[in-house]
Design goal:
With about 350 residues, the chain is mainly α. The chain contains 14 helices and 2 strands; from the N terminus they run ααααααααβαβααααα. The structure holds protoporphyrin IX containing FE.
């Protein structure tokens, strides 16, 4: 009987892992072992570097998580948000919702790019590095552990200002607007509430929420919370920031939902999730049950992380995450062409 115990443990553990992942289908062209032969150390390089970065400043985790969200929602998870503007016009980075992305987040992705390229050559995309950095940000800030499918390719171009604006909802949006916007990406109300839980870490600038304070205070906001926010933001355009989660701002936990239940959500898009009858019950269930939040967050992240991905021969593997390659021949296609030439000899 005892001799079966290890096998039983393995079966239980693997069915749990596979069970939670199998709920979200893997997009064609992506896989959980994409770089296992050509860059086996990828994940440890990323994790080790981020551990060092976060040791100095854990708040950088929030910047990286948001960067992945802004990448995926506009034109798919294709590294388009990383591209600097060019002669063809201002980039996604210059569109209003992206102006508050942290400069450090872009630098960290470029540092990861250099470290990974040194070890493996030009084989890992900037879009995958962004997805891995977001995943590690969640884990290293104390959140759930999960694997991400890899194999995304980098875009050759970025989206226009209007497309960027149309795909990233404003913090002044109510739940109807948020649900409608995210349903166009096949994200359901549970996904919406779970993804919003990313606001358990990070900061917001006064301009993102002062419309709730002036000229009239939002009636759904706790008055003490409002009083403190007015100290941080004495006028509508003060250039200060405050934490998104008033309880545990640097820990990836379920306290964001406890904030909402106590009417201490920072943005309208957060607090209205507890007012709207379609999402109120989900908020309450996450406030009461952190494991449930973690489970639904991972599912929603896996869905978000596979939006509109480029795979196979689409796009390219950028040598520099901030700029498209000078010529379109990248290592992946060189390797592939080499393999085709070899095959044609048989
Ligand atoms: C549902 C609609 C969402 C809206 C309207 C929204 C809006 C915002 C706004 C306005 C900020 C603060 C920007 C600033 O003033 O500096 C912010 C910060 C942040 N958002 Fe969201 N967000 C949404 C969804 C998400 C999602 C899906 C994620 C990730 C999965 C996310 C992750 C973050 C993080 C981590 C921060 C803190 C960034 C930092 O500290 O640098 N947000 N969000």
């Amino acid at each position: 009987m005892d001799s079966h115990l290890p096998l039983l443990v393995i079966v239980i553990i693997s069915s749990f892992v596979v069970g939670s992942i199998s709920i979200v289908p893997v997009a064609p062209g992506l896989s959980y072992s994409f770089y296992s032969s050509n860059c086996p150390k990828l994940e440890s390089i990323v994790t080790n570097h981020l551990k060092q970065v976060f040791k100095k400043d854990i708040t950088q985790s929030a910047g990286l998580l948001r960067l992945h969200f802004h990448d995926c929602f506009v034109q798919g998870c294709d590294g388009s948000v990383l591209l600097d503007g060019s002669a063809s016009g201002p980039s996604e980075q210059n569109a209003p919702p992206n102006l508050s992305l942290r400069k450090e987040a872009f630098n960290i992705i470029n540092d990861l790019r250099a470290l990974v390229q040194k070890e493996c050559g030009q084989v890992v995309s900037c879009a995958d590095l962004t997805a891995l950095a977001a995943r590690d940000s969640v884990i290293l800030a104390g959140g759930p552990k999960y694997n991400v499918p890899l194999g995304r390719r980098d875009s050759l171009n970025f989206a226009s200002r209007n497309v960027t604006l149309a795909n990233l909802p404003a913090p002044s949006s109510n739940t109807t607007t948020i649900l409608n916007s995210l349903s166009t990406k096949r994200l359901d109300p549970t996904d919406v509430v779970a993804l919003s839980g990313a606001h358990t870490i990070g900061r917001g600038h006064c301009t993102s929420f002062t419309s709730r304070l002036y000229p009239k205070q939002d009636g759904t906001m706790d008055s003490n919370f409002a009083k403190n926010l007015k100290v941080t933001c004495p006028t509508t355009n003060t250039d200060n920031t405050t934490n998104l989660d008033v309880r545990t701002p640097n820990v990836f936990d379920n306290k964001y939902y406890v904030d909402l239940v106590n009417r201490q959500g920072l943005f309208t898009s957060d607090q209205d999730l507890f007012t709207d009858s379609r999402t109120k019950g989900i908020v309450t269930s996450f406030a009461n049950n952190q494991s449930l939040f973690y489970e639904k967050f991972v599912i929603a992240m896996l869905k978000m992380g596979q939006l509109g991905v480029l795979t196979g021969k689409q796009g390219e593997i950028r040598a520099n995450c901030s700029a498209r390659n000078a010529n379109k021949v990248d290592l992946w296609s060189v390797v592939e062409e080499g393999a085709l030439q070899l095959l044609s000899q048989f």
